[in-house]
Design brief:
The protein has about 240 residues and is an alpha/beta fold. Helix content is about 30%, strand content about 20%.
Length: about 240
Amino acid sequence: MEKQVIPILMYHSIQPVPRTEVMRSLHVHPISFASQMRILKMLGFRGCSVSEAIASFKSGIPEKLVALTFDDGYKNFLTNAAPTLKKHGFSATIYAVSDLVGTFNQWDLENGISRNDLMDYADLRQCVSAGFEIGCHSSTHISLLNEEADFAHEIKSAKNTLEEKLDIPINAFCYPYGHFSDSVVKSVAIALFDSATTMIRSRATANDNLLTLPRIPITWHTMPHLFLAKVLTNYEDKRRHA
């Protein structure tokens, strides 16, 4: 029997930005996003959370799923992504930066990237009520390979903070910048996360380590034909070790 493959798509901000925007690839235009979700629906896929994808792997019952992830928890998710997802009956995982909830992308500013507001806890609760999964993207968005990174604070405390504020279990982690090491993964395991996503490029399978799951980047420049190739073919799988 052919192994089940579930693409885990990586999004950040869903909003229009000018051509001059630094790191324009961090954004996807709302019209493009709506088109991508419509394509998935037409192909018979269901957009799901990372935890739903893992449950499907564990069940051994193949489903036509695409996991949707949104790093950082931008406020524009509520206005520009959530209505489209709701329209199609899709879920998703939103990775929040616990110490910066309700502020903005402070970690980006020194790189010339524009300020972008993050959801506050009321917004995140609204997402939970709408059926979206909230995951953890550390406490401050520091690279966990940085020698100044405090694993206890960035991983375990971040999980505790989100759980206390939202009164739900937080089972999914996402490594800031995709950076991880054996010791970082061990800390994520000790904190009792069920999954963690990376920036390793590939579609996910049941054979993948649940704490180093690969993802597929979807950017401003992902045109429909490329979107189809990323989801339906081994286009990204070939980049796993690139």
